[in-house]
């Protein structure tokens, strides 16, 4: 069995009035938030899909269905901790995670370090192994028209025996 696995995740949520904007577990001040059953943290959702995908464990919709009332409004960091329990139960740890948030507005640079901190805690890895970047789409597409926010993430998982 290979000692290293890689997973890729992608997620999108629409921007709407009357919701908080939560990214990487950080409440970002903005006039709109992301639409979703949970807190709609598009970054954490992409990371969870990357983690699950690395071990072919399905996707977040299968693990946390949006028709289950127990997940309504739940913190995506709580869901990430659950996914990490699955990853660890399979004998893996996270080697590193790289991600990008695509948003025309708001500017996210002031919040990146807190996101990295939150994610490193939830994944039980050093902050130096967590990368969060933000970019615009130069006013192109649904992100550029400020209709929504997207995120992508890639993770490496290492079999625990390989680390020892």
Automatic annotation (TrEMBL):
Record InterPro entries: MECDP_synthase, MECDP_synthase_CS, MECDP_synthase_sf
Please state every residue range assigned to the domain named 2-C-methyl-D-erythritol 2,4-cyclodiphosphate synthase. Answer: 4-157
Top-rank taxon of the source lineage equals Bacteria
Residues given in the record as a divalent metal cation binding sites: 11, 13, 45
Site positions (Transition state stabilizer) are 37, 136
Give GO terms for biological process: isopentenyl diphosphate biosynthetic process, methylerythritol 4-phosphate pathway; terpenoid biosynthetic process
- For the keyword Lyase, the answer is yes
Q: Which keywords does this Swiss-Prot/TrEMBL entry list?
A: Isoprene biosynthesis, Lyase, Metal-binding
Similarity comment: Belongs to the IspF family.
Q: What is this protein called?
A: 2-C-methyl-D-erythritol 2,4-cyclodiphosphate synthase
Q: What is the organism field in this record?
A: Desulfosporosinus orientis (strain ATCC 19365 / DSM 765 / NCIMB 8382 / VKM B-1628 / Singapore I)
**Recorded name of the encoding gene:** ispF
């Amino acid at each position: 069995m290979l000692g290293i696995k890689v997973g890729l995740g992608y997620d999108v949520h629409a921007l709407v009035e009357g919701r908080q904007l939560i990214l990487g577990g950080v409440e970002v001040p903005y006039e709109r938030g992301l639409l979703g059953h949970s807190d709609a943290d598009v970054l954490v959702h992409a990371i969870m899909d990357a983690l699950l995908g690395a071990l072919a464990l399905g996707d977040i919709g299968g693990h946390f269905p949006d028709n289950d009332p127990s997940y309504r409004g739940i913190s995506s960091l709580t869901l990430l901790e659950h996914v990490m329990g699955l990853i660890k139960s399979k004998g893996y740890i996270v080697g590193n995670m790289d991600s990008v948030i695509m948003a025309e507005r708001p500017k996210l640079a002031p919040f990146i370090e807190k996101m990295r901190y939150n994610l490193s805690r939830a994944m039980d890895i050093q902050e130096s192994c967590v990368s969060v970047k933000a970019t615009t789409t130069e006013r192109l597409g649904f992100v550029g028209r400020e209709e929504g926010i997207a995120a992508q993430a890639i993770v490496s998982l290492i079999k625990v025996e390989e680390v020892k």
